[in-house]
Every structure is written in C-alpha cells, then in structure tokens.
Amino acid sequence: MFDRKKLISGIVLSTLTAAVLVTAPVVVLDASPAAAAEEKAKKHPGKTVYARNTCMACHGKDGKKSIQDYPNLAGQDKKYMISQIEDILSGKRTAGNDATGHPRTEGMRGALVTPEGTVRINAEQIEQVSDWLASMDPADPTPLETPLTDEQVKEGEKLYKKAKCQTCHGKDGLKPLKGYPYIAGQKKAYIINQMNDVKNKIRDNGKIKTMYAFVKKMTDEEIDLLAAYLSQIDRNKK
C-alpha cells in the first residue's frame, strides 16, 4: 500500500519548487566587451607592477591622471612604452627639468635603479606593466585654460601636416606606426617639453632623432599651438 499523504505532499512540494524557479528573477551578467576588458585589467599582473613601483606618483591612478608635465600612459603603444622604460633605466633617454628643477626621467630611474646600478624591475615586469597600460582606455583630454578657436584648430592641423608628423604618428596623432607613440589627447605641457627637448638635443634616444630635422625649424609659438591642437583630440571618440 502506498502512503497517500506522502504522495500528496510530494506533489505539492514539486509544484511549489517549479513555481519558484519560474518566477525567480534572472540575473544577467554584464558580458559586454568593455566590462570584460575592465575585469581583465583588474586581474592583470601589470597592475601590481605599476602599484609596487610607485608609477602612480607621477603618472596617476591607472596612468590617467599624471601630475605636472608628466605624460598620461593609459592606452599608449605597448612597444613604445617598453622601449622608453628600457632607455630611461639605461640612461639613454634624458630629459629637461620638471617644475621642481629635477630632470623628469631621473625620478623614475631613481625609483627603479639602485645607487649601485642594480635594476629593480625585470624584462617580464616591464612587458607586463606596458601590456596593462596599453590595454586601458586613454585619458580624456585635459581642458585648456583658453579653448582653441576654430581658426586655431585649423592652424594646428596645418602645422601637424607641415611638420610631417603624420608620417610616424598617423592622421591627427591617432594611428602611429608600431613602436611610435600616440600623441593625440596627450597633455599639452608634456608635448611641448618633448618637442623642446628634441629641438635642444636633450632627448635623442631611439627613433626620436628623426624629429629633429622638423622641430628645429619651429618657433615657440608654433610648438605651443601644435601641442594645444593635439592635446584636445579625444581618442575615446575616434
């Protein structure tokens, strides 16, 4: 003989369970490319390298809020960053002074190279931090104190073409050759400093030497306008 009460209880329990499953809210995980990239960036070993080596002291959190005239690094070309880190550590890349009167590259070199010459970061870590930074979205352009007029924008574009910047950095600084930096949306002060360092032969490492022939002919006013023009190009909207 079967237990009629147990049978009825079982049917009721099954019905209630089915009702809960049907009416329960469905949780949809955000699987968008942007969300996936952000989640991947959080777990990237390069983020740890960046934090442990005090990179944010000058370049800001996630390479997007740099201080003074230091560059934003988020979204920069990976190969370019690797080459520049190596050149700074070896002393090949030199620079003019920052607002405190110290050579801009010496802060990084001082943090990563001991007085005895031992480098505190290895090739794998350099690759990791460069890969992580390159995977990030670029920083938004830093607004100018005085916005450019339409005429100044046109003049800036003309200067960019006249100086043949697009040969290495691509149209409007948005599509550089591999190993060359993105300059669109970079901070105005940083662009000015680099152009002046090249013009005055303070910086001559790597491929930067090719710039000298063009930059040496430019006036301070032209350099200022070109830097302002490039700094306002939003890579996130292109």
Give the topology.
Elements: H1 4-23, H2 33-43, H3 45-52, H4 56-59, H5 78-90, H6 104-112, H7 123-135, H8 150-162, H9 166-169, H10 188-199, H11 212-215, H12 220-231
Helix pairs in contact: 3-7, 5-7, 8-12, 10-12
Please provide a written account of the structure:
This protein is an all-alpha fold. It has two domains: 32-139, Orthogonal Bundle (Cytochrome Bc1 Complex, Chain D, domain 2), CATH 1.10.760.10; 143-238, Cytochrome Bc1 Complex, Chain D, domain 2 (Orthogonal Bundle), CATH 1.10.760. The protein is 52% helix and 0% strand. The chain is built from twelve helices and no strands.
User: Which architecture of the largest domain per CATH?
Assistant: Orthogonal Bundle
Helix content: 40-55%
Q: Would you tell me the overall average pLDDT?
A: 88
- What is the approximate shape? globular
Q: How is the biggest beta sheet arranged?
A: none
User: CATH homologous superfamily of the largest domain?
Assistant: Cytochrome c-like domain
Work out the radius of gyration.
26 Å
Which structural class do the helices and strands define? mainly alpha
Beta-strand share of residues: under 5%
What string gives the helices and strands in order? Answer: HHHHHHHHHHHH
